[in-house]
Amino acid sequence: MLSKRIIPCLDVRAGKTTKGVKFKNNIDIGDPVEMARLYYEAGADEIVFYDITASHEDRDIMIDVVERVAKTAFIPFSVGGGIRGVDDMRRVLLAGAEKVSVNTAAVKDPHIIAKGAEAFGSQCIVLGMDAKHVGKKKNTPSGYEIVINGGRTYTGIDAVEWAKESEGLGAGEICLNSIDSDGIRDGYELKLTALIAENVGLPVIASGGAGKPKHLYDVLTKGKADAALIASMVHYGTYTISQIKSYLDDFGVKIRKTW
Amino acid sequence: MIAIIDYHAGNLTSVARAVSHIGCKCAVTHSREQIEAADRIIFPGVGAAGSAMESLKRLGLDTTIKAMFLAGKPILGICLGTQIIMGHSEENNTRCLGFVNGNVCAFPSKMPSANGICLKIPHMGWNRIQILYDHPIFSGVNENDEFYFVHSFYPAPGNKEHILSVTDYGISFPSVVGFDNIIATQFHLEKSGRPGLIILKNFCTWQPC
């Protein structure tokens, strides 16, 4: 059977890894190429990079980062942030990324998903979704609303409806980030994650809130996620990927044990 | 020199990077002369069987690869390459190269799983292989090693002796097939970390009997 995937997430700004709390107060914490190599060697199943500024100059720096990662880390990795069209996707895929993720640009123009899937295959196209708990309303029957622009703009779009629509358009995977739990290290948003996983036939990567191995156990079981994104808990050395995997293995979660 | 066959079926730079990383010379090419001059051939690919076969025929590479196969050059198929060497694919109802007798089949829909959600298609992520026949390319691979898969179809050789390993995903499906001078993996060797690079390296020195 498939292993549940443990995926370190590196936010990259101007060629440096950075980490913020609730999308704010970012501080630089290291070289993304070196961090990717260390995580690859430490047993990460995949790596996610978010280009969090994505100005034109930074875009070129990011492509250089992707090319250097591809020479040292022989596992899949994805790149998101500032992907506005098929040309942006082609650049990061040719640089060596396995997948690209689209978020704000897909909300503004959902056809970017279809165009990407047609050009490169659904397996390449990850829909990044930032969702916030807003309570059940007419527009948001699930109680969760999609927010864009790094959490600053409400869209009025229901999270479950958007997930289903993206599947119809050809997305291959959903990376679901809870704005409410992001950076708080108090656990993933289990209810939201299970809701999305039950309503689409796509793999779901849970994001936002990992602070200890128990949180990953919860989201990979009760949350029905296929993969879990981690950042702070490994970036600062609080846990190693091995420790997290041992914990999950002890509690019967199927994970990749050798690398 | 290893020729990595470029037939416009996905991004082949990852395969080339992995081959370079293990210290072997390679070229990503669709030149018939370059392929014919190569010591061994890697036949990768991502995408759909129908358009892949069309591209191969348009480039005239179907006959070139067949000639290399009959001449006994070591050939490694990866992912779509592994499916294209079979006789026929259910994907786009495509007649394929036919080096290995058998079909390419779709995973059954609605396979049940433990948490009540149907197994997702494509089969995407890390999974184990159960080795059925010893083969030099498995040298150094351990029982618990996992490999990275992304696919909705799988090869089903007619001759069971051509199934070198199987993998479980709702059903047990062939994950490595081969005989004589051909070996083919459904998983992505170039994205499977250390065990993937070991198999790739084994292929680079493999001398088929």
Explained architecture:
The complex is a heterodimer of chains A (259) and B (209). Helices cover 36% and strands 27% of the residues of chain A. With 259 residues, chain A is of the alpha/beta class. Chain A has one domain: Alpha-Beta Barrel (TIM Barrel). Chain A is globular, with a radius of gyration of 17 Å. Chain A has helices at 32-41, 56-70, 86-94, 104-108, 111-120, 159-169, 190-199, 213-221, 232-235, 241-250, and strands spanning 5-13, 16-21, 24-30, 47-51, 77-80, 99-102, 125-133, 144-148, 153-158, 173-178, 204-207, 227-230. Chain A contains 10 helices and 12 strands. Chain A has an 8-stranded parallel barrel, surrounded by 7 helices. The two termini of chain A are 17 Å apart. Chain B is an alpha/beta fold. Chain B has a single domain (2-205), classed as 3-Layer(aba) Sandwich (Rossmann fold), CATH 3.40.50. Chain B has helices at 13-21, 32-37, 49-58, 61-70, 80-84, 193-205, and strands at 2-5, 26-29, 40-43, 75-78, 86-89, 94-95, 100-106, 123-128, 130-131, 146-151, 153-157, 163-169, 171-179, 182-185. An 8-stranded mixed β-sheet of chain B has the order 2-1-3-4-14-13-12-9. Chain B has a 4-stranded mixed β-sheet with strand order 6-5-7-11. Chain B starts with a strand and ends with a helix. The relative contact order of chain B is 0.17. Chain A binds chain B through residues 1-3, 5, 40, 45, 70-71, 74-76, 93-94, 96, 98, 120-123, 172-173, 197-198, 201-203, 221, 224, 226-227, 256-259, and chain B through 10-11, 13-14, 17-18, 21, 46-47, 115, 117-118, 120-127, 142, 144-146, 148, 150, 168-169, 188, 190-197.
Keywords:
heterodimer; A: 259 residues; TIM Barrel; 8-stranded parallel β-barrel; globular; B: 209 residues; alpha/beta; Rossmann fold; 8-stranded mixed beta sheet; 4-stranded mixed beta sheet; 6 helices; 14 strands
The major β-sheet of chain B equals: 8 strands, mixed
CATH topology of chain B: the name is Rossmann fold
What is the fourth-level CATH superfamily of chain A?
A: Aldolase class I
Highest CATH level, the class of chain A? Alpha Beta
Instruction: Please give the count of helices of chain B.
Output: 6
Strand order of the largest sheet of chain A: 1-4-5-6-7-10-11-12
Tally of DSSP β-strands of chain A: 12
Question: Over all CA atoms, what is the radius of gyration of chain A?
Answer: 17 Å
CATH architecture of chain A: Alpha-Beta Barrel
Identify the overall geometry of chain A.
globular
